[in-house]
Amino acid sequence: MDSVTLDSLDLELLHALQLDGRAPFSRVAEVLDVSDRTVARRYERLRAADAVRVAAVTDSRRTGHAEWLVRLRVLPGGCSAIAHALARRPDTAWVTVASSGTEIACIFRVTDGGPAPLEALARHPQIRDVDAHRLLRHLMDRRWLGRTSALTAEQISALRSPAPGDAAPVPLTDLDRRLLPALAIDGRAAYPALAKQIGWSESAVRRRLEELRRSRALQFDVEVDPALLGFSVQCLLWLTVAPSRLTTIARSLTADPETAFVGATTGAHNLVAIAVCRDADALYTYVTDRLSSLTGIERMETTPITSYAKRAAPAS
Asked: CATH number for the domain including 258?
């Protein structure tokens, strides 16, 4: 990624796209009180520098998929190649390198009821250990505040995407299996380009995308390195929580500005969170002051995130 510095307009643009990843630049420009050309130029600059990407993210609950959170402990030197191989798989939604290159955490999306494809991973000569947990539920319904704090309440109201419609499960079609990977790469791809790329008519692509958005089976996330926003430390928090306190503690975590994701899982660690902090001192304060004050956390493991091979989901 080229060196990039974000100014106030960039931050407003990123917040706007987080509210509606496919909002026309003309609409964004009107709310931000700048020209269409300025908004388009700013976005293209960030895209060209590989600093920002709008990616489509499906909601597994509505597409009939299960999510498995998998931890791989890897021999030194093997992490990068394994992480990038996992990132190229269509059934992975999130791949991160942690613990200074000796661990990988990723999410597999599989047909509901099916297991995560762990057998091949366990046979890999550079993987020492494989630990899989079913991700039972996403418990955080807002975005990380570090990238959604640039706009006023009035601007947010003007840009927020339409309210969802029917929340019933949405069976994926042959069109979806072509469309969704294309949108995961570029969530702002124009309809004519999408139609040409996947070999369907523009009208069919437009209609199906609108249906998926209306049902909330498809959302759009803005991928941006928190370091560009002044947050240099990210950490996975593996928490073992008393069952009677799980909901209360999860609710407390989702209200914290440091939190980017909270989910309930199977296994010894029944709650997992991602904390994003200004620096190591801020993470220390969050862990020792904030988390230690929550009654019901019986055990906690912290795993520093060092890099991402694939970002989309959890939608932080």
From this structure: 3.30.70.920
